[in-house]
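Task: sequence design from structure.
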């Protein structure tokens, strides 16, 4: 790679790509139009796609000098893919967005305006978000709980059309947590964060890569990764139930003295017991969530492996 300073990009656009063959060409074209006249690079991170995405990406890199393709060894998930991109960026300003064109590239200049005004993290809120109703309700809940537990307000943790200063992006990449949640991580590290409202479109090609189970895991990452609130809630629930149990025992004792021995109510007892067991299992699950995170961190395995970085049709930097 020629290191001439006039080719050093000022803006790095990072896009994670997982089986998005249908939208890649249009994505590149629209970003090219929007950033015409700017010194920018488009870092496309292939997150182990199994369709023709990688082939298309390589071709784009061969045809367009601003395109850099980062090939990951397998599928590591959206946030890790973006982090892998962060390790390769050269610009002063880093903008992330999704490959499926749900985040319109035409909003990038507005993110840049905020970055150039000195904000080191620019979040975005999806106005008129075009996703299924249930998904939106669940996101709203996750946003509220997270804001409460992290203590840093952010209206829309799920929107990935975002901007970061190069310093902040580098700091985030350095943290290299095992289950990172980028927007939240950025909010806790940023000195001067801001939020803007952006449009959000329906997915036109392919389908969402997030199944309900994957979304649940992501929400668990977000909550347990940033606070102890979930586990503290479990402890509080435990205390409340223990108190209730003691009260109930006292009540049964009094009844025994007043009414005498009786066997009715056995099934009520079962119901109560099951409820307690449910809470107990929830507690074990939450503890497990934290233990799993600790386990992942102490193993210190790399979070992702970059197989190759290509631009101008040839490998430039290897892992
Ligand atoms: N993505 C990824 N790896 C994954 C899942 C998703 O790189 O394991 C990318 C995907 O290609 C897209 C972005 O992350 O660019 C958001 O994914 P998706 O549109 O499926 O999520 P949703 O919009 O439903 O939240
Ligand atoms: Mg999407």
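Answer:
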């Amino acid at each position: 790679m020629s290191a001439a300073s006039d080719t050093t990009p000022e803006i790095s656009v990072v896009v994670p790509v997982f089986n998005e063959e249908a939208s890649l060409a249009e994505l590149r074209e629209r970003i090219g139009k929007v950033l015409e006249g700017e010194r920018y690079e488009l870092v496309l991170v292939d997150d182990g796609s199994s369709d023709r995405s990688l082939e298309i990406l390589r071709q784009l890199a061969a045809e367009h000098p601003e395109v850099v393709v980062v090939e990951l060894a397998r599928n590591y998930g959206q946030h890790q893919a973006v982090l892998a991109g962060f390790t390769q960026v050269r610009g002063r300003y880093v903008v992330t967005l999704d490959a499926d064109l749900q985040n319109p590239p035409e909003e990038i200049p507005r993110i840049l305006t905020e970055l150039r005004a000195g904000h080191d993290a620019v979040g975005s809120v999806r106005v008129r978000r075009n996703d299924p109703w249930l998904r939106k309700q669940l996101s709203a809940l996750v946003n509220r709980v997270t804001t409460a537990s992290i203590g840093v307000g952010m209206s829309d943790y799920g929107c990935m059309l975002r901007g970061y200063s190069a310093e902040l992006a580098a700091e985030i990449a350095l943290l290299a947590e095992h289950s990172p949640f980028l927007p939240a991580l950025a909010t806790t590290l940023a000195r001067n964060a801001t939020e803007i409202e952006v449009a959000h479109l329906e997915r036109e090609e392919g389908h969402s890569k997030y199944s309900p189970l994957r979304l649940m895991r992501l929400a668990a990452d977000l909550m347990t990764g940033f606070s102890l609130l979930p586990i503290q809630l479990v402890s509080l629930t435990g205390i409340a139930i223990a108190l209730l149990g003691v009260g109930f025992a006292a009540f049964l004792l009094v009844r025994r003295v007043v009414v005498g021995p009786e066997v009715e109510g056995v099934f009520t007892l079962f119901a109560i017991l099951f409820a307690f067991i449910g809470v107990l299992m929830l507690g074990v699950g939450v503890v497990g969530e934290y233990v799993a995170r600790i386990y992942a961190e102490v193993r210190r395995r790399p979070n992702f492996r970059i197989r190759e970085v290509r631009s101008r049709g040839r490998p430039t930097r290897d892992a």
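The chain has two domains: 11-209+302-311, 229-299.
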